[in-house]
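Good morning C.,

I know you're traveling, so I'll keep this short. The sequence:
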Amino acid sequence: MKFVLEVTVDENASAQERAAELGRILRYWGGNLHHYALEPGDGSPVYDSRYKEVGVWRLADD
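The tokens, ready to paste straight into the viewer:
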């Protein structure tokens, strides 16, 4: 099984802002994984701190 996280970052943001937003996304979504069965096919949209959809995570077969 493979965990896939795809996130589009704001190219106009500074490197520091992008790193901070990605860190927040990883902490938040990583902390929520216990709410899922974590079986192939599971996944969810990923939102940034402004509640804008910026990507998705999903579990896929290898």
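Safe travels,
E.
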